[in-house]
Write the C-alpha cells for this entry.
Amino acid sequence: MNMQALRIGKGFDIHKLTQGPALLVGGIEIPFDKGCLAHSDGDVLLHAVIDSLLGAAGYGDIGTHFPDSDPQYKGISSIELFKKIRAVIPSFSCINIDMTVFAEEPRLSPFRKDIEQSVADLLSIETERVNFKAKTMETLGEIGSGNAIAAEAVVLLYLN
C-alpha cells in the first residue's frame, strides 16, 4: 500500500433545530418534533461526512461546492449532495469513518445500525468500517438546551 495515498479528513456541521422540517441524520429520518433549519434538507451528519471527504481529498468544503446563496440547492437532499461530491473527488476507497452527533434530544442510539448502514451504502463499504456515536452536551450550551444539533466525522481515505 502506498502510504502517500492515505489521507485523513475531518468534517463538522451544526444546525439550529426548529419546528417543522423532518430531522434527517445520516440519511435516516428520525421521528422528532423538530428538524434542522438549513438551506438544504439539513442532514447535519451527512454534511459533516461530506466535509470530511472533501478535506481528505483536498477539495475544500461543502460551502465551496454548494453555497447557500445558490437557489438551485434550496431544499436539496444531502444524499444528492453526497453523490455530487463522489463525482467530484477522484477515485478513492474509504478505509474507515468515525462519526459523532451531539444532541440533547432525540436519543439517536436506537438508530445507530440504520445510520451506519446508510453511510456504509453511500461509501460502498462494509458496515464494520463505519462507526456512529451519539452524545449529549449534559444540558450545556445551545445543543444542551435543545436549540441545535451538531456532527463531526473523521475519515481515512486511500486515493487510488
About this structure: Strands lie at 6-19, 23-25, 28-30, 34-37, 92-102, 130-135, 148-159. The chain has one domain: 3-159. The domain at 3-159 is CATH 3.30.1330.50 (60s Ribosomal Protein L30; Chain: A;). The two ends are 10 Å apart (CA to CA).
